[in-house]
């Protein structure tokens, strides 16, 4: 499936590594321009040297395809050692949580649980019962961060019953605040296992990895794999990190993967879900639930349902970071465009947190997307609602209604209470954005069939300010405007 690019991985930028004959492969995207590939290689190589990282591999995904991939360094960190490539396995750490989360959402979509269910409703006998499934997914359940035993990331793990009886519990009232918890995802892995009657990874492999063609994502290293290494902070020497089965804690960070496999997961996050999850459910997972708030610092990071979400200068990103002793990883996808980046390294520390976004920004800036060609939209939704466009007034405030992409747009989405509305009936619409998300808009017509006013979540929009013919709630002063 993969090609060894260890000799000069940056000399030939490539597109989707899967076979062109693969019927399930997304539309092939042009590989990154050679000049872009050289620049991205320079950024990757510079970070590898600056951070003294034994090896690092990375990729860029656009339109569902891997358009650039590269690797720098030797997997053992030594000159002349085996060069890393895009089929080298690395431990992804907490990116594992996104797979567990999708497995949970599939249970919800199948009607087998509700996100508002208490954990106790599905897995009895722990001290986590007060937290809901949604709170565990978003790190809002107040559950303790780590286990009560030895450093779980460096010691073999036990069973769920042993973990629950240790005992693990809550540090804060459920719903009070963000508190990152590895234990919470161990709990969700147990929930997935009990719901299906098989190990959590068997569910992930069967329902997620196999349909997406991710054959190089495993719970333990397989084939060509980088060893976990620690680099001495004051000397150029290495210390191997232990590798083991984390047992009940495995759903928090056990999985190993390659650039080529994780690129398929980035494409999934970018919208190419291959019917593994509905687009609506994926979008729901990206909605921020709990804010990662550090006192004294502006916040830009939150957690959705199993995914980290970032707001960078108004642009939304989703993904996750990952770290385990000997490994660092990152996955980030721009939600609107689907452009994604992934980075994998075998070092306990040293890799800069800005490398992934820098690689993605550099690629997008050097190769901006060509705007889609404008075409007239004359479908039934547009033609049947032309009498709604133009100026409307909420009291004295002025709003403009337009028809764009089959939606009625009132005001400017993202500004004040501007929103798009989808048609759900002859004169019924529902809000898609901001304040009016999910709220009803009803067109009230005069006797002659012309629009009299818009009733939007009880607010009255009229063609003229406080139109007396529109039955404005509260009535109008008898003296009128003066």
TrEMBL record:
- Source domain of life: Bacteria
SUPFAM superfamilies, sorted? beta-lactamase/transpeptidase-like (SSF56601)
The Beta-lactamase-related domain covers which part of the protein?
47-350
One Pfam family from the UniProt entry? Beta-lactamase
> Where in this chain does the record put each DUF7586 domain?
385-463
* MF-aspect GO terms: hydrolase activity
* UniProt keywords, alphabetically: Hydrolase
Q: Where is the composition biased (Basic and acidic residues)?
A: 1-31
Q: Where is this region: Disordered?
A: 1-35
What InterPro entries does this protein's entry cite? AmpC-like (IPR050491), Beta-lactam-related (IPR001466), Beta-lactam/transpept-like (IPR012338), DUF7586 (IPR056008)
Asked if the keyword Hydrolase belongs to this entry, the reply reads yes
Record's protein name: Serine hydrolase domain-containing protein
Report the source organism: Terrabacter carboxydivorans
For this protein's source organism, the top of the classification is:
Bacteria, Bacillati, Actinomycetota, Actinomycetes, Micrococcales
């Amino acid at each position: 499936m993969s090609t060894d690019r260890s000799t000069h991985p940056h000399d030939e930028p490539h597109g989707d590594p899967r076979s062109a004959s693969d019927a399930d492969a997304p539309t092939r995207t042009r590989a990154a321009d050679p000049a872009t590939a050289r620049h991205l290689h320079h950024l990757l190589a510079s970070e590898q040297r600056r951070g003294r990282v034994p090896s690092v591999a990375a990729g860029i995904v656009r339109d569902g395809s891997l358009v650039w991939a590269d690797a720098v360094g030797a997997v053992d960190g030594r000159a002349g050692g085996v060069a890393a490539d895009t089929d080298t396995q690395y431990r992804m750490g907490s990116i594992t949580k996104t797979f567990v989360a999708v497995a949970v959402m599939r249970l919800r979509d199948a009607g087998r649980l509700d996100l508002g269910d208490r954990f106790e409703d599905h897995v009895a006998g722990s001290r986590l019962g007060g937290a809901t499934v949604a709170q565990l997914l978003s790190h809002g359940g107040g559950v303790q961060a780590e286990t009560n035993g030895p450093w779980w990331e460096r010691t073999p793990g036990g069973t769920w019953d042993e973990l629950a009886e240790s005992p693990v519990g809550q540090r804060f009232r459920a719903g009070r605040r963000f508190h990152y918890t590895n234990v919470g995802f161990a709990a969700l892995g147990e929930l997935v296992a009990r719901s299906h009657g098989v190990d959590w990874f068997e569910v992930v492999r069967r329902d997620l990895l196999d349909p997406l063609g991710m054959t190089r994502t495993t719970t333990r290293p397989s084939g060509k794999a980088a060893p976990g290494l620690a680099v001495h902070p004051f000397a150029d020497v290495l210390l191997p990190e232990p590798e083991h089965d984390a047992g009940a804690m495995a759903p928090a960070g056990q999985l190993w993967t390659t650039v080529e496999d994780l690129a398929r997961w980035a494409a999934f996050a970018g919208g190419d879900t291959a019917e593994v999850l509905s687009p609506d459910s994926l979008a729901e997972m990206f909605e921020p639930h709990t804010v990662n708030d550090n006192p004294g610092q502006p916040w830009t990071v939150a957690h959705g349902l199993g995914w980290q979400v970032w707001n960078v200068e108004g642009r939304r990103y989703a993904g996750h970071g990952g770290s385990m002793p000997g490994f660092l990883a990152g996955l980030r996808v721009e939600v609107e465009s689907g452009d994604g980046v992934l980075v994998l390294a075998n070092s306990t520390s040293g890799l800069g947190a800005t490398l992934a976004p820098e690689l993605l920004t550099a690629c997008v800036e050097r190769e901006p997307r060509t705007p889609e060609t404008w075409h007239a939209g004359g479908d039934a939704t547009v033609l049947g609602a032309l009498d709604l466009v133009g100026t409307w007034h909420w009291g004295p405030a002025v709003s403009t209604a337009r028809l764009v992409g089959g939606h009625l747009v009132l005001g400017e989405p993202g500004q004040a209470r501007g929103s798009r509305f989808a048609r759900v009936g002859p004169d019924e619409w529902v809000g898609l954005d901001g304040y009016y998300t999910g709220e009803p808009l009803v067109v009230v017509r005069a006797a002659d069939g012309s629009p009299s006013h818009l009733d939007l979540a009880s607010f009255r929009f009229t063609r003229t300010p406080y139109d007396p013919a529109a039955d404005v709630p509260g009535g109008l002063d008898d003296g009128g405007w003066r």
